[in-house]
Structure formats: C-alpha cells, structure tokens
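Colleagues,

For the teaching module next term, I've prepared a clean inverse folding example: a structure given as tokens, and then the sequence designed for it. I'd like students to try predicting residues themselves before seeing the answer, so please don't circulate the second half yet.
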C-alpha cells in the first residue's frame, strides 16, 4: 500500500515500499485532494501488478500516458510502467472486446470474427507496433481472397464485406492509439466506406409472402413471417418482444432494438402500427399461445435459424429464395409504406433516418414504371384545362374567366414595379433574380 502526504507548501508526495523492500517516494505537485486520491488508487494498482509480474491493462496505460512527462518518466524508471507501453495483438483484441459495452449481439459477433481473422493471420503474440501499413494491406488482400469461412463453394469475400472487416480492424487499432500502445493506426487509408450495390436488391410483394405463409407449419410461424414482412423489423434481433408489447386495443406494437439501444433510451424502443393485414395472424397465434401475458410472442425465434427456415418455406411454396432474405423483406415494406405515409413517420417506425432509407432501403417496383407510362404527369398538367396537354404550351389557351384575373395581377405587378423602380418583362415577372418579399406580398 502507498501512503499520501501533503507538504507545508501544499504539494503532495506519495510513498511506497518497492518489491525489494526499499522505501520510495514520488512528488506529484500541487493538486486537489480528490485528484491525489485518484492518483494514489491508480499508482497502487501499478505497484500490485509489478509485484505479480503482470502487464498493466489498456485503460491503466491510457491513464499513465496522460500524466505529466516527468511523472510518467519516474514511473518508467521505477519499473512500474514500460518505456514503450505496447501490447500484443491478442491482448489488444481481448481488451477491445471487453470494453465494448452495450453493443448489440450481432456487433459483438462481428468484432469477434475480425479479431479471429487478425490473430489467425498475424498470431496472438505479435506486438502491435510491429504491424506496418504494408502488413495491414496484405491482411486485407488475404481476407478478400480467403476470408469466407461460411460458404463452401467459394473462399473470397464480397468487396463490401472486406471493407466492413477492414473498418473494424481499424477501430481496434485506433483503440490502441488512444491507449498509447501504438503510435498510429496501420489500417488508416485503406478503403472502409461501404459501396452502394443494388445488384442483390429486390422487391418482394405481399402476394409472394402470402404463398409462403400458406405453407408454414403452424400459427406461430405464420404470424412470425407476416410480422417480419409487415412491420419491417430487424429480424431476428427485434423479434424478442413479449405479449405486453402488443396492444390490440390501441393498434400499436412496441419493438425493442438492441442495435440502436446504445445511442440512448429514445433509440432503444420504438412504436409501430399494428397493421390491418397483420392483426388476424397475431390474433390467431395469441389465441393458441400458451405463453402468459409476460411471455414471448415468438419463442421459436430464440433458437431457430430464421433465414434457413424461411428459405425452406419459400422452396416449399414453389418459389426461389431471393437474395438478402430479411433485408429485402424490410426494404420492401418500407417501399410500400412510403407510398402511403409521410417518409419521416415511416422512418421513425423502421428505426433509421430518411437518408439511410433513400440510400439502402428504397426498392424499384416494375409495376410503378409501367403505370407511370400510362398516366399523365401531374406536374406538367397543373392548371391545364382537361388535365392533359394537347399540343405545345403556346398552343394552349387559358379560359376566358382566368384571363381577366391574370391581366389584373400583371397590371398590379407592373404598377408596383414602376413605383419601386423594378423593370418587368412581358410575363409580368421581374427580370432580375432577386426576389422582393414586399413586392410579392403586395401583389398577392
């Protein structure tokens, strides 16, 4: 244990007994008593680690790196802190995963996958300062060619997957930079931003899903498939809701979102409508369910591989599974809802911004393109008698009832323009690009 004392001049001094029994002391200057106690606590942790021959954890190294250079140098000279406080790749990955609190399970799984890829390539004992930018580029090329361990028919990873893996690797090493274990991130400068790839995007109509629901084995599976398609939830993470989250009376459902919960309480849950198409499936399953009101709505979602099971049902219905099963279901529902409701409300129901919706979730519908060719555009036909142009714009005559009012407006604009010294064109509009709000208000 170390003891803290205060001199007459107001400076604090820390005394301790070294591992070989010698009395030692270190001055830390004039600081507050609270800061002195915090320093003493961290210092005692360093002393204990030195006695058992253990390396300081990342957070303790980060604290030491923020100390005044003279104090840090003294800690190094006493053997409490290494001159170059680095760490192995295995330790860096372990500390990174340990300190990632509050992230979703899928994010934690992704972090573990990247840590395993790093350790398999470099080795857990490799010191992180020995990993150069060239080594990082070689690792990226290696996982691009041999990083696929899920599909048996190919070993290469898609470009966007490689970019995501590289981004996580960069996150890990940036943590090492913050902790003072390494000077710079060797993965900096490698491509990590996700490219837009619409090759696997597809719109899945509700009629297709109804065929899949018809072959589902029981009411729970039917309700689950309808729930995923009609609410646009993130499956399977947002399927862990209880019956108390479903309000049949008010027609709402409260979803819990592990993916966005770490952004704050308002992102942890969201309320979505209990759509009319979904209600009969949920009511049928609620009538059969033996779960209590506090039980899970879909107990089967805890253990089943939803993607694999859904693909089986799709084939059983005589259809071919579409790419990105769950993502395209979610995107298809958002595409439909935005056609009916304000985009801001729809994005609030689905749990992301309008920017994300436009970039990643909008789906092209062939029937909309075909329909657009059959009907006139409202923007071009606004104010046109009969609603459709019958020739060039100059050939269209305004009704007699409209012309006097238009001439009156043009005359008012011309008189006001002369009074204010503004030159108007033949159309009665100002020839300059500057808009005079006062003129507009008076004319209108």
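(Answer key — instructors only)
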């Amino acid at each position: 244990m170390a003891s803290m004392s205060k001199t007459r001049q107001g400076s604090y001094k820390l005394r301790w007994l070294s591992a070989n029994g010698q009395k030692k002391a270190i001055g830390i200057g004039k600081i507050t008593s609270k800061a002195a106690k915090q320093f003493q606590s961290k210092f005692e942790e360093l002393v204990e680690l030195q006695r058992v021959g253990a390396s300081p954890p990342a957070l303790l190294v980060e604290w030491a790196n923020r100390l005044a250079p003279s104090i840090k140098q003294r800690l190094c000279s006493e053997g409490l802190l290494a001159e170059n406080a680095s760490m192995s790749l295995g330790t860096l990955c372990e500390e990174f995963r340990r300190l990632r609190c509050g992230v979703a399970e899928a994010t934690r799984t992704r972090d573990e996958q990247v840590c395993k890829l790093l350790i398999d390539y470099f080795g857990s004992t490799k010191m992180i300062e020995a990993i150069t930018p060239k080594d990082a580029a070689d690792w990226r090329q290696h996982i691009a060619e041999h990083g696929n361990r899920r599909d048996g028919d190919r070993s290469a990873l898609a470009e966007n997957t490689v970019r995501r893996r590289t981004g996580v690797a960069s996150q890990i090493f940036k943590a090492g930079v913050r902790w003072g274990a390494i000077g710079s991130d060797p993965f900096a400068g490698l491509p990590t931003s996700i490219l837009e790839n619409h090759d696997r995007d597809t719109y899945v109509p509700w009629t297709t899903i109804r065929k899949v629901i018809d072959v589902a084995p029981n009411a729970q599976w039917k309700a689950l498939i309808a729930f995923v398609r009609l609410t646009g939830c993130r499956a399977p993470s947002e399927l862990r809701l209880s019956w108390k989250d479903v309000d049949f009376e008010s027609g709402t459902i409260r979803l819990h979102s592990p993916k966005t919960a770490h952004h704050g309480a308002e992102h942890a849950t969201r309320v979505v409508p209990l759509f009319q198409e979904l209600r009969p499936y949920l009511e049928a399953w609620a009538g059969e369910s033996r779960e209590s009101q506090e039980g899970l709505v879909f107990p089967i979602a805890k253990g089943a591989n939803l993607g694999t099971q859904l693909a089986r049902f799709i084939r059983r219905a005589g259809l071919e599974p579409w790419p990105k099963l769950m993502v395209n279901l979610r995107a298809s529902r958002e595409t439909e809802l935005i056609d009916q409701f304000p985009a801001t409300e729809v994005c609030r129901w689905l749990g992301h911004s309008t920017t994300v919706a436009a970039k990643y979730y909008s789906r092209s519908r062939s029937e909309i393109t075909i329909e657009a060719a059959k009907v006139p555009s409202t923007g071009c036909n606004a104010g046109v008698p009969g609603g459709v142009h019958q020739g060039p714009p100059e050939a269209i005559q305004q009704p007699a009832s409209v012309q006097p009012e238009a001439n009156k407006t043009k005359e008012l604009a011309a008189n006001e323009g002369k009074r204010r010294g503004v030159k108007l064109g033949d159309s009665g509009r100002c020839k300059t690009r500057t808009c005079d709000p006062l003129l507009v208000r008076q004319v209108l």
